[in-house]
Fold this protein.
Amino acid sequence: MRKTRCILIAAVLLAAASAGAASQTARDGRYPATTGTIPPPAAGTQPAAQEWSGESGASGHPLMTAEAIRAAAANFRGCIERIWPLAARRGITRNLFQAYTAQLSPDLRIMDLLDNQPEFTKSFWDYLDLLVNDARIASGRALLEKYRATFDAVEKAYGVDRYTVTAIWGVETNYGAIGGERPVIRSTATLACVGRRQNYFREEFLSALEILQRGDVRPDRLVGSWAGAFGPTQFMPTAFKRYAVDFDHDGRRDVVDSVPDFIASTANNLRKDGWVAGQTWGYEVVVPATLDFRLADHAHMLPIRDWERHGITRPGGKPFPRPDDHAFLLVPAGVQGPGFLMLANFRAIMKYNPAEAYALAIGHLADRLRGAPPFVQHWPRYEHVLSRNERLELQQLLARHGYDVGEPDGQLGAKTRAAIRDFQTKIGQVPDGFASAVVLERLRK
């Protein structure tokens, strides 16, 4: 089977690191047989490596132009050396730093991926179709049963719903099957020195070095996504530092190979991010076309009984079990699709990943795992889904018309939706904030 180029890089790094890391392993015995029963991904389950396209990123950010990427890549060694003093202040030894960076080269393929995250480029319905399906539901239910005792203990310790933790496991890596095989050190080092988010990823790179220094995760197992997330529930290195726990009490916080550790660490993450025990994430709701859609905003947290006064109902007239809970309204497809009242736990999920589509997929998969039916209302699948370039064009045109969309980036957030609502009001459409092809065409005139 073909191996990706990143696996070969990982092997080179590990060989270079053997003098430093292996001696530490022999000294403190931190790498006994792994706990739990999650094996490494099978050979051939990862896609073959691809080279950078050589093209500028879709975001239009000045650091994502092809010229800027090439210039940063040429200065990669200098960038890494400038990071060394920061690493030293964190207790990273020079030997370990050299072992993992001496032969390091940037993985520029990541530049094509940085501006193409599916949470921001697919429609909500396509994203949900991809992640919430019969196979994923069946696999999740089997794991819930297999690790019932672990989930019992974790729920007792952290008060976080087991179905939501399992949904994160399923959405992030399809229960460990597609966790990625890029070395975390290389990915975070690349992003710390190249592209539009260098300040953010410099901290991730330093935190990854700290993980290796402490010995929580085996060096050969510190592999993951292009952004540096690793393990079945995809911890970023900084999130690992804040939330990882040693739930199996073996002396290591191993969120890669210890099932108790990564389940408990994921629950701890949600709890510290504001999870409310005993509460759901939200409800599918029917939104009347007469609603003032300016209320559909994260900032408008109202008691559910107040939303009912605005005409918001559940499909089939089903009652809300806790009408005093506060929620905000999300209408991802405007008046043409389902709406959702989102509670505090939806915000906690969004802190795990700030994309609304991601958090909705987690909430919906969690409900399906516990036996709930699919969403009742239909999505507007007849709508042309705007491409990334079209979304960027829409933002740029709105800005030219005097609307505040922030920095145009092709990602349609709250400011863009507010601007679309204002434009829809001007042209006589229902101002639901949905970025339709019709809105784009009217803006082009």
Notes: Residues 26 and 287 are 62 Å apart (CA to CA). The chain has 20 helices and six strands. Confidence is low (pLDDT under 50) at residues 1-48.
